Amino acid sequence: MKRLINQRPGRVSTAALALLPFVVLALFYMFASDARLAENPNDKLLPSFSTLAESFVRLTTEPSQRTGEILLWQDTEASLRRLAQGVGISAAIGLIVGVALGAIPLIRSGFAPFVAVLSLIPPMAVLPVLFIVFGLGEVSKVVLIVVGITPFIVRDLQQRVQELPRELIIKAQTLGANSWQIVLRVILPQVVPRLIDAVRLSLGTAWLFLISAEAIAATEGLGYRIFLVRRYLAMDVILPYVVWITLLAYLTDFLLKQTSRRAFPWYHTGEPGR
Amino acid sequence: MTPRIRFENVWMTYGDQVVLERLNLTVAPGEFCTIVGASGCGKTTLLRLLLGEETPSRGRILLDGEPLPAEPGPDRGIVFQRYSVFPHLSVLGNVLLGLELRASPVTGRLLGAARRNAQEEAVAMLEAVGLGQALSKYPTQLSGGMQQRLALAQSLVMHPRILLLDEPFGALDPGIRRDMHELVLRLWRENNLTVFMVTHDIREGFYLGTRLLVFDKLRYDPDEPQAYGAGITYDLPIGQADSETLAAVLGRPGAAASDRPPAPGLQR
């Protein structure tokens, strides 16, 4: 018998092991839901799978009576737009500021402590300020995401730039590079895949701030809908929405990972499982 | 003739620690100096001084009669033991980079005919180091020896006035290392280079080049080992490095590779 740390599952058992927790969770939910519904058929807390499926079909196909739009798509579009804008702006700021802080000692000395202090401001604490300054519209929600994740991306990229081997920066200078050329041809291309890593890590936080902002003031959006139907205990809407949000988050992460592998093959050689 | 490199009474100190002291050295164009010595004896500091990464605490260094610039530049090429090539560029891209940087200060890229010319030059250089078949590979797909070949090509395509080698073959297998010795000697002769090579392997030092510089402490205070710096204790033209000298160098306490007996066939 091999040691536990040396036992590796085959392909089939890897898939089976990966599925196992999902199946267990689904079974657990099913039994709990059955038990509650057996006692009270009108129970709203744990709706049955068939109710959930019906409600999901209704959400994705039937137009709302009030607006004529299909709610799930409308909410998804609104939320994804805010998320993409917020994350996009954060990534752009993160790349520019992170590279500047990491590559240029004069800028680092001047601004790194400032960025470190800024990153400690709890974003939710400044949400009222954002609402006051930017109003209750789209801008304040996007800005909350930016405020929430930019400091992390900036500091992570600064770290990644400083971790580039000193030898490479010296070598570039012996090839005649000026500071701008070093940033453009040596540092930037090497930190873009690391930026994708940083964005992937911050996506969960971005969703957190998006849903918080939508819960407080919005007229559409996935977070808005969940918090709206909460007052009717509409678990048959909330649960499909949560699953849908999770699926969207997973797909975004997967797409970013694949993009990185396609675009930067040199960065991914030597990864496990390849 | 103006010496290529001239150290005039150079001292290097960090706080109260003296690393190099009273260093005087004149190197003519075309010389191949190998530098050996125990760890912490200032070999790497010497290389950093030549690169311009460090400036001497006292004294001065002249390159072709002019004060050495205080930062790395295209007149001095370098190959490190590791991280000498850019992982995000292909083999061809790595050699092309220097040519592109020189010709295009703003974008750092060449287009059209200028790019084709540069490419031809880069390919010729890569063929000279035996990498003509690997142009589109990335460095991570190359073996250690091939990466160092690439690093040499990348530096030499710029035609530097000095080539600095910082233990370039330290991480390679003995067989590969022998091939690399042949390559470096050939490139040195063909391109009329001035080479400074730091090595841990004293046999490598005796085999390669025209001049062996042994670094060691000139004075030693057991109570305060940092009080005195290292200097050149042996400065040998390779032709005169007979077995007695080799034994003397190896026998010095603290000298590099002192635990290893001189290999037969090494003495000339």
Oligomeric assembly: heterodimer
The CATH homologous superfamily name of the domain at 84-217 and 243-264 in chain A equals MetI-like
Task: Provide the CATH architecture of the domain at 84-217 and 243-264 in chain A.
Answer: Orthogonal Bundle
Low-confidence sequence ranges of chain A: none
Structure write-up:
The complex is a heterodimer of chains A (274) and B (268). With 274 residues, chain A is mainly α. Chain A has eleven helices and no strands. Chain A has helices at 11-39, 49-61, 71-103, 105-118, 127-134, 138-163, 166-174, 179-216, 222-229, 235-263, 265-268. The longest helix of chain A is centred in the C-terminal third of the chain and has 38 residues, at 179-216. Chain B has helices spanning 43-51, 91-103, 112-128, 144-156, 174-191, 202-207, 243-251, and strands at residues 5-14, 17-27, 32-37, 58-63, 66-67, 76-79, 162-166, 195-198, 211-217, 230-237. In chain B, the strands form two sheets. A six-stranded mixed β-sheet of chain B has the order 6-7-8-3-9-10, with helices on both faces. Chain B has a four-stranded antiparallel β-sheet with strand order 2-1-4-5, covered by helices on one side. In chain B, helix 2 (91-103) crosses helix 3, helix 2 packs parallel to helix 4 and helix 4 (144-156) runs parallel beside helix 5 (174-191). The chains are: A mainly alpha (274), B alpha/beta (268). Chains A and B meet through helix 7, helix 8 and helix 11 of A and strand 6, helix 2 and helix 4 of B.
